Amino acid sequence: MTAAGHDRGVGKGVDQPSTADAPADSPYSGNQNGGRGSAITDSASKDHPVGTESKLTRRLGVAALVAMAATLFFGLIVSGPEVYQRDAARLFYVHLPSVAVAYSGFTITLIGSVLYLMKKSIFWDLVAGAAAEIGVIFTAFVLITGMLWGKPTWGVYWQWSPRLTSTAVMFVMYIGYLAVRNLELPAEVRSQRAAVLGVINIANVFVVHFSIQWWRGLHQGQTLGVDTQLDGMMLFSLFLGMVAFMTTGAWLLVHRFRLGWLQHQQSKMLLETAIAERNAEAKTATAYGQGA
Amino acid sequence: MHWEFVFAGYGVVLGGIILYATLLITRGRKVGAKLPPERRQFLD
Fold first, then answer.
1. CB-CB contact of A145 with B12 (8 Å)
2. Among partner residues A29, A137, A268, which is closest to B20 by beta-carbon distance?
3. By the CB < 8 Å criterion, does A220 face chain B?
4. Contact: B33, A251; criterion CB under 8 Å
5. Among candidates A52, A240, A203, A140, which has minimal Cα distance to B44?
6. Cβ(A238)–Cβ(A96) under 8 Å?
7. Could you tell me if residue A289 is inside a domain?
8. Which DSSP letter does residue A4 get?
9. Which residues of A touch B3 (CB under 8 A)?
10. Mean confidence (pLDDT) of chain A
């Protein structure tokens, strides 16, 4: 995931430009081959892939695909129905792993935010943002699969019980975090505010996790613990789901981080080009003034 | 019993992952194509 030669500090006052901002005749515009792909695309060496892919992402992607296929096979076919909830319990193999990915994403956001506040490094800011986005997406999966599991089990899709409510609040809080990352502010100010929010938001992750112990509600108690009573094949399917989802989460995180990095590089390049153009104009004007 | 809920849940999750991954990869290629090689170096 590491980007080579990453700089320290955020470009001050630089907003993320749209990819459409690059001039059409720019050597990096990607429009030099009759629109069928850029010169860079064609000449890109294997060491410098055009997009966010690399050997690492390909390996992670293949591992995620294999693990996901195994989860589907064991979760939907091999593993038997649960005694009380019957086949609806099969949602367990995607619901709980989604929770694990969401928690991991928000924990990485916390770590990235703290390190950004300490080092002011754009690298950690991008890591925090990428992890929060993954966390939000998997929290959405948690809420949707939870509701679909709730209907046949509880008779309702939704109830404002502590676990469900706190999860919904967590979802909204991290959407807020992502919204702050897109505010029209100088980049340094925006990153600073997002980092503070990334630290504050983690408090609700603890509330979500311990809500089933602190308050009574519809949601079942802790599934995995010392007194786990899961059938061997169900436990194995759950383990496969955990591996599949964590690998998928890591794969998505690398891609999301690299996309953020490329956008940052594009923003920096456009700023440098604009500064060079203004300097050239100033030199021409000075030379003209001296000549006159 | 209740297979419709199971398939809906698995469909949303798998479909969501595929959609998000596709968006990330295509956007990465689009942005990366506008950058010179030295600005898109990653270490594995």
1. yes
2. A137
3. no
4. no
5. A52
6. yes
7. no
8. T
9. 87
10. 81
- Supply A105's token pair: 């994403």
Mean pLDDT of A247-272: 92
Cβ neighbours of B36 in A, within 8 Å: 27-28, 40, 269
Interface contact A258-B8, CB threshold 8 A: no
Q: What is the CATH number of the domain that holds A206?
A: 1.20.120
**Amino acid code (one letter) for B19:** L
Report if residue A105 sits inside a domain.
yes
How many domains, in total, are found in chain A? 1
Tell whether A272 is covered by a domain.
Answer: no
Select from B8, B31, B38 the Cβ nearest to the Cβ of A262: B31
User: A191: domain range?
Assistant: 55-222+232-265
pLDDT (0 to 100) of residue A18: 38
Spatial distance between the Cα atoms of A123 and A116, rounded to a whole number of angstroms = 8
3-class state of residue A3 by DSSP: strand
ipTM of the complex, rounded to two decimals = 0.92
Query: Does residue A241 belong to any structural domain of this protein?
Result: yes
Q: What is the pLDDT of residue A40?
A: 38
Distance CA A114, CA A108 (A): 10
Structure pTM? 0.81
Which of left, alpha, beta for A17 (phi over 0: left; psi -120 to 50: alpha)?
beta
Which range, of A80-94, A104-118, A122-136, averages the lowest pLDDT? A80-94
Q: Report yes or no: A69 at the B interface, CB cutoff 8 Å.
A: no
Contacts of A39 (CB under 8 A, 6+ apart): A27, A32, A33
Give the number of A-B residue pairs with CB atoms closer than 8 Å.
146
Of A52, A55, A94, the CB nearest to B24: A52
In degrees to the nearest 10, what's the CA dihedral of A18, A22, A191, A178?
Answer: 20
Residues in chain B: 44
